Amino acid sequence: MSSAAPAPVTSPASAASGLSAVALAKAGAPLTKKALTADHPTWCPGCGDFAVLHSFYRVLEKLNYPQEKIVTFAGIGCSSRFPYFVNSHGGPDMHGRALPIAAGISLGNDDLHVFAFGGDGDGFSIGGNHLVHTARKNVNLTYVIMDNFVYGLTKKQTSPTSPIGFKTKTDLTGAVDQPINPMRTLLNSGATFVARSHATQVNHMTEMLLRAAKHNGFSVVEILSECVEFYEGAFDSSVPRKGGTWTVIEEKKRDGTPEDAARHDVTDEVAAFKLASLAWPGAFGVFYENKQRPTKNALEAGLAAKARERTKNASDLAVLQATFAKGR
Ligand SMILES: Cc1ncc(C[n+]2csc(CCOP(=O)(O)OP(=O)(O)O)c2C)c(N)n1
Ligand code: SF4
Ligand SMILES: [Mg+2]
């Protein structure tokens, strides 16, 4: 695919008129894939990202949010074209900058459902710093990382998840650097919902995305999504029909049965780290979920409420003027 320049942020209405002629869901009518489809996806035939988009439409249909309350945001990369294809508010921004903007949108608009999308380069390389800080702050939004172990849009450079030995245009004799372990990185940074899925497993992916969307806090789903153009076969070892193994994390049911003792407790961070350290291709499912830690959204709302009380509900302008007057 050729390089894409950042496009202006669109609204559902402008997407409908500017990108393709699609109808917004009528008020009160269930949200449908038809209403959510903004443009014809332009990925290479066979790219894993198509399945992620299909899954995301299904998730939005199930959640049935008011369409005007949905925001999809991205950086730059093949995967970051995602918002072009969803009839929602949002759009792509600069490479690696999806999260600070999505975080700002979330913090300023508690009524919106904010989703950010990107690739392994966007999320773990140029945007790695933003990922860590959005996670530690527990900003309420969902981040979907389409991991293809390569820079797809720019035609095959080594990415932070490329395995050692993978030959690319930046590592002609094979990558030499230790790749990032996405699950360990996310756990260590403080993300409060951490899951892993696979673009060939649509039902599993849909379940992970649905749970992530419902989570109150920073939720991340890493989806192995094959780049058929520049890293064909990268994930064959986790695709049963190609002879690979597909291992799903069995979560504790708390049903008192002896089998339950061996099941994974998603609230146990140490157990999550152990799962994240399994040999490739590892396990798929929810590694960690923390419903206790307050979101930055809630903490900031608390601070704002206290300030309103202290200033006896003075207007923002009056508070600003008083602050300037104090500083003189
Ligand atoms: C600041 C900046 N640096 C570099 C680039 C070039 N660039 C665009 S996309 C990309 C990497 C994309 O890889 P990834 O995030 O893994 O997404 P994919 O295309 O694989 O889905 C790079 C290096 C850019 N657009 N902007
Ligand atoms: S990620 Fe690879 S297969 Fe997918 S659109 Fe980009 S270049 Fe094509
Ligand atoms: Mg990539």
How would you characterize this protein structure?
This protein has 328 residues and is α/β, with parallel strands linked by helices. It has one domain: Rossmann fold. The N terminus is likely disordered. Strand 5 and strand 6 form a beta hairpin. Helix 3 crosses helix 8, helix 5 crosses helix 6 and helix 7 runs antiparallel to helix 9. The strands form 2 sheets. A 7-stranded mixed sheet has the order 2-1-3-4-8-7-9, sandwiched between helices. The chain has 11 helices and 9 strands. The radius of gyration is 21 Å and the shape is globular.
Short description:
This protein is of the alpha/beta class and 328 residues long. The protein has helices spanning 12-18, 33-36, 49-63, 98-108, 120-126, 128-137, 182-189, 202-214, 269-276, 296-310, 316-327; strands at 70-74, 89-92, 113-119, 141-147, 150-151, 157-158, 193-198, 218-224, 285-289. The strands form two sheets. The chain has a seven-stranded mixed sheet, sandwiched between helices. Strands 5-6 form a two-stranded antiparallel ribbon.
List keywords for this structure.
two-stranded antiparallel ribbon; alpha/beta; Rossmann fold; 7-stranded mixed β-sheet; 328 residues; binds iron/sulfur cluster; binds magnesium ion; 11 helices; binds thiamine diphosphate
